[in-house]
Amino acid sequence: MTSSLTHRTQYPDDGRVIILPGDPDFDWTLAFPPPNWKSEAAKDPDGFAFVVEPGSGLARVATASDLEEYLYGGEYDERLDEIGESEEEWEWDG
Asked: Do residues 75 and 53 make contact, with C-beta atoms less than 8 angstroms apart?
């Protein structure tokens, strides 16, 4: 059995520790949830969602009320504009 204390984080070969937008590894990094997602998700018994912040493209955990604010407060529309989508292109089944 491997202890989690012996697990070493794999950094890029060139020694970088911070990966910023524009870095070739940035998009790959975005494919993973934030490290604190479980503790943030546990704060709301009604559930949670991952939302992507406009501007940075970083995912974050949103509680039910955060998600409502994200969808109706304009952040969602900003993100759709950034990625070249529009809400009209999506058909909602709900």
From this structure: yes
Which structure tokens are listed for 38? Answer: 């479980």
pTM value is 0.60
CB-hemisphere CA count at 13 Å for 87? 8
What is d(CA 79, CA 73) in angstroms, rounded to the nearest whole number?
Answer: 12
Q: Give dist(CA 29, CA 19) in Å, integer.
A: 8
The residues near 46 (Cβ < 8 Å, ≥ 6 apart) are: 63, 64
For 4-38, the pLDDT digits (tens) are 444 445 555 666 667 777 877 777 777 777 788 88
Tokens found for residue 63: 């509680």
